Description:
By secondary structure, the chain is an all-alpha fold. The protein has helices at about 1-10, 15-45, 50-60, 60-95, 100-110, 115-125, 130-135, 145-170, 175-180, 185-215, 220-225, 235-245, 250-285. α2 (about 15-45) packs across α13, α4 packs across α12 (about 235-245) and α12 (about 235-245) runs antiparallel to α13 (about 250-285).
Amino acid sequence: MSAQINASRAGTTESAWVRYSLIGVALTFMFFFLVLPLAAVFTEGLRKGLAAYWQALQEPDAWSAIRLTFIAALIAVPLNLVFGVAAAWAIAKYEFTGKAFLTTLVDLPFSVSPVVAGLIYVLMFGAQGWFGPWLQAHDIRIVFAVPGIVLATVFVTFPFIARELIPLMQTQGNDEEQAAIVLGATGWQTFWYVTLPNIKWGLIYGVILCNARAMGEFGAVSVVSGHIRGQTNTMPLHVEILYNEYQSVAAFAVASLLALLAVVTLVLKSVVEWRHARDLKAVANLPPEMPRTDPAHAH
């Protein structure tokens, strides 16, 4: 018996040199393609000293780009939170005509180039677009203004939350929600006390990814912004302008903020994954007689 176990272990366990080789390849890849570029961004941004670095960040156009980036993300992420939860709920919990079409629409921003997405908004809301004359007549600006930037950001970031929640909700099924409704819970109580606790980590994870993409989006925003310095430039666009003007220190100083946001995103992502794994382990270790979800809490 022990021989069979040892043979089984030998057949499923790699030798030490294989493990170390795989770890070495992974670490080497991460160093050259992740750590080294990030270090280069901060090094170049600080090349002329901390004073020049802060001066580049305090420059009015840079501050305007930073502010506009956060404004676009603060508007786009909550909108995608609502849309993503609604779309995921409809796709995962209900059967209806057009469900496959709705799923395809959710994935559409993944397959459409961001530049094409920006051109679509120019075609619709530009001066010569479908709604351009009407917008001009009512003094409403969308393209080459903040609303266009927000719309483009919403479009390219829409799938992130929905795509995190759809497989999670489909795996969980409807049993717990139906039990809560049978016990007298309303739809809102069922969502707040049953569904939301079950999807909270996937929701947080999707929000983190959505926010990271919103702040770093370049293609779609570049088309609809008009590149007006101090007005419609986000951080990625401002970095491009500075770099094209050979202001490398200022460009890398602003780029370092985007790199820092990427690092913070990775840290938050790791924390969320760790907390999720810990919660799953805690649920798996519950005694069989203890219910894992008590729909009565929905009352």
